[in-house]
Amino acid sequence: MKISTPLVDVKDQLLTIISEGFNVLGHAFTWTHDTNAIVSNEQEWRNKVYGYLSETFPTAKEAGQFLHTPGLELIFISNQQANKAINGMNIRLKVLENILDSLEKYYQFEPGTLSVDIQHIDSFEKVRGVNHRDIDKYVNKGFFDKEEDAIIHAFAEIIGESYVPNHWPGENEDLYTSRILFNGQRVQTSIAFNGPGKVPAKETRLSDLGARGNQLLKMMRVTSSKLYVLQSVKYVSQDIIDTFEALIRDQRSKGNHCYYCIIDGQDTATVLYAYGYLD
Questions:
Q1: Residue 168, phi then psi, degrees to nearest 5
Q2: Would you tell me how many other CB atoms lie within 10 Å of the CB of residue 153?
Q3: What's the CA gap between 213 and 216, in Å, rounded?
Q4: Measured between alpha carbons, how far is 210 from 230 in angstroms, rounded to an integer?
Q5: CA-based angle 84:85:88, to the nearest 5?
């Protein structure tokens, strides 16, 4: 099952609440006479953790384990009410540590980076089984010799998009679709395609994107997308990557938690090979 939060964020939060739990436990043993504070602090911590587990995990398993896992009753403090609170915290802290240790065993997580590779996109899952040697004969020094229109229609068929708009000079992207599956969900996606072009350059540069080199910027103005994809039949230059990173950071600063993906010539060949579009 998948969790729509990066793994590092879940780990950090679990470590934080475990640390907070031990602080509450330490206070209980330091101020053994303050029963009301012991019980109140334990209850406040328990409610906070239960809320986090319920909101973060896709099932009630973790929250249920946290609340209801039995354990040995030990006598820590003579006061029965305080002793029950401390016993409960001791058991629940062990449950949280077990959840932390087994996160990657049971769940897949949203990528924690600004960019994702084609392997991360569920709609292109077949590329995960392709060896790079399988496509060596289709790619020459990063260049995949295939016309842009053919690539656009192949990608549309792969993701199940039946509508491919005609090109026009003012377009923000070549394909705007909700058919892409990413992290187990359909997400709105903007895709810009870049074919061989008329200039025999070895790589695609920022200036090659659109008549004025501003297609990337125009595509990123479509703030409803959660995934922005640039496809090219060539190697993609660093200036495009740097610009993409800056634009994605800007989008995230405004509340759009989005990602970008670059599919270069080798990746393009891999996708088409995986889905049977190459001999």
A1: -150, 150
A2: 13
A3: 8
A4: 12
A5: 85
- Comparing CA positions, the residue from 174, 179, 150, 178 lying closest to residue 164 is 174
Residues 105/34, Cβ–Cβ less than 8 Å = no
Strands (DSSP E) contained in the chain are 2-6, 108-110, 139-140, 143-144, 175-182, 185-194, 203-204, 227-232, 235-236, 259-263
Q: Quick one: CA torsion of 231, 235, 238, 241, rounded to 10 degrees?
A: 20
Is-contact 187 229, C-beta < 8 A?
no
The answer to whether 169 and 202 have CB atoms below 8 angstroms apart is no
What's the mean pLDDT in 130-147?
Answer: 94
Question: What is the mean pLDDT of the segment spanning 66-87?
Answer: 84
Q: Which structure tokens are listed for 141? A: 């020094």
Specify the pTM: 0.66
Render pLDDT for 169-220 as a digit per residue (tens, 0 to 9).
555 678 999 999 998 889 999 999 998 876 677 899 998 888 788 889 999 8
Q: Give 238-262 pLDDT, tens digit per residue.
A: 999 999 999 999 998 888 889 999 9
Distance CA 28, CA 38 (A): 5
Give the side-chain half-sphere CA count within 13 A for 252: 16
Joined together, the tokens standing for residue 268 give: 């393009």
Contact 183, 258 (CB under 8 A): no
Strand partners, 260: 115, 228
> What is the four-CA torsion angle of 140, 146, 151, 157, rounded to 10 degrees?
-90
Q: Measured between alpha carbons, how far is 95 from 62 in angstroms, rounded to an integer?
A: 9
Helix axes 7-30, 80-101, angle to 10 degrees: 160
> Helices 265-274 and 148-159: crossing angle, nearest 10°?
50
Could you give the CA distance from residue 165 to residue 160 in angstroms, rounded to a whole number?
14
